[in-house]
Each structure stands twice: as structure tokens, then as C-alpha cells.
Amino acid sequence: MITRNLSYSFLVAILLSGCSMIPTYEKPAIDAPQQWNESSATKETVVAKDWWKNFNSAELDSLMSQALSYSNDLGAAIQRVEQARALAKSVGATQFPSVDATGGLGYDRVNPETGKTTSESTGSAGLLVAYELDLFGKNRAKVAAAGADVESADFSKDATALVVMSEVAKTYFNVLNLQERLSIADQNLNSAKELLRIVQARFDAGATTMLDVAQQKADLANTQAARASVELQLKTVRNALAVLVGKT
């Protein structure tokens, strides 16, 4: 009778393990247009993974390589992917039975005739197999959720890589722009200094007034201030670029 009850209970458990309480996912309906208003936008555009190489800049290529290898943001995103994969692996382990080994060792032996105890080596070993039945699909839901977390982390990593690459390119071109502006500011500063020298020489010769000298000195001071502002912007942008590529 006990055997029949155990068999019946085991059969019921097996049948229940096939039941699932996981709700069926239904994709939400979104009222979105089927195509763009502009006819040119309907053409499929393929963007290369190494799109920045179209600029033919060895320096930009080097910066991109450093950013993809040493960016702190991208490194954190990659670690989140690895963490999600490890979690999915540990959750998936619940789908399989667990096995534990047991064993014992003894040395005592009692003689039934004399009652004398002697030492004798004895041993025993065994295996304990346990399996958790997935009633109502709980474990399967955990495995599916963990798999979705892995995909989400992977997509987030790719999105982070795109953001890093775009920011590196934008910041690099900003550096080039500020370098050009600084070069122009240096030329303007040299011109202002030369004009002040000429005005001062004319004043010393009595060909002009002190007002002209004062105005030229004011122009020189404004030119120096403008150059200092561009130089400060260039330092700031260079620091931002260093952060993007993971350098000090």
C-alpha cells in the first residue's frame, strides 16, 4: 500500500511539473507609420562597424582602438554582460539534479566469542541524488528571465560602444577645431603686438597721440583674453577625450 501511494504521488508530481503558470507574452500594439514621409528615407542604409575609417585619420583610428579597449564605461558594460551570463548559468543549474557523495571509515571490530575489540579497517560510500520538480514552471521562468537579462546587457553593451565611438569622434573633431582656432588666435595676437609696436613708434616720433596707443593696448589685451579662452577650451576638451579613451 505504501508503494502504491509513493508511485501515485510521484506520478502526480511528474504531471504537475508539465504544467506552467508562466503568462504568454503578447507584443503590445503600437500605432506607428509604415514608412517615412521623405522618399529618400525609405532606402536602406548600412553603416559599417568601422565607419570612422572613412575619415582616413590614423590618429582617429588609434583613439578609437584605445577607447574600445580601455573605456571605463564600455568596460563596465562588458562586466555587466559577464555578470548576467554567470547569473543565467547559475539559474540554469536548478534544472539539473544535484549529486552529493557520502562516505565513512571505521577501524573497530568486536569478537563475539571473546568480546575482545580489535582494530579493523572498514569503509562505506554512497551517492545522494536530489532533483527539484519544476512545479508550474517557476524554474523555467527564472531561466527565461535570466536569458533575457543576458540579451539586455549585451544590447546595452553595444549601445554603450556606439555612444563611446560617437563621442570620441565628436570630441576629436572638436579638438581639431579648437587647435585651428588657437592657431588663428596666435596669429591675431602677433598681429596685435606688431600693430602696437608700430603705433608706439609713431607716437614716439610725434605722428600720433596717446589715445591711439591706449586703444591699441586695449585691442592687444582683448586678443590675449580671447586666446586664453580658446586655450582653456582646448585643454578641457582634451581632458574629456582622455577620459573617453581611458587615459589620464
Task: Give the secondary structure arrangement, pairings included.
Blueprint lengths: L1 H16 L40 H13 L1 H21 L5 E13 L6 E14 L7 H67 L5 H35 L4
Antiparallel strand pairs: 1-2
Task: Give an overview of the whole structure.
The protein has 248 residues and is mainly alpha-helical. 61% of the residues lie in helices and 11% in strands. It has helices at residues 2-17, 58-70, 72-92, 138-204, 210-244, and strands at residues 98-110, 117-130. The chain has a two-stranded antiparallel sheet with strand order 1-2. It is elongated and about 135 Å long. It starts with a helix and ends with a helix.
Essential attributes:
5 helices, elongated, disordered N terminus
Apparent shape: elongated
pLDDT below 50 for ≥5 consecutive residues: which ranges?
Answer: 1-17
- Our estimate of the beta-strand percent is 5-15%
What are the secondary-structure elements, in order, as H or E? HHHEEHH
**Percent helix range:** 55-70%
Radius of gyration: 39 Å
Quick check: average pLDDT? 76
Largest sheet: 2 strands, antiparallel
Total number of beta strands: 2
Q: Whole-Å distance between the termini?
A: 77 Å
Structural class: mainly alpha
Strand order of the largest sheet: 1-2
Number of helices: 5
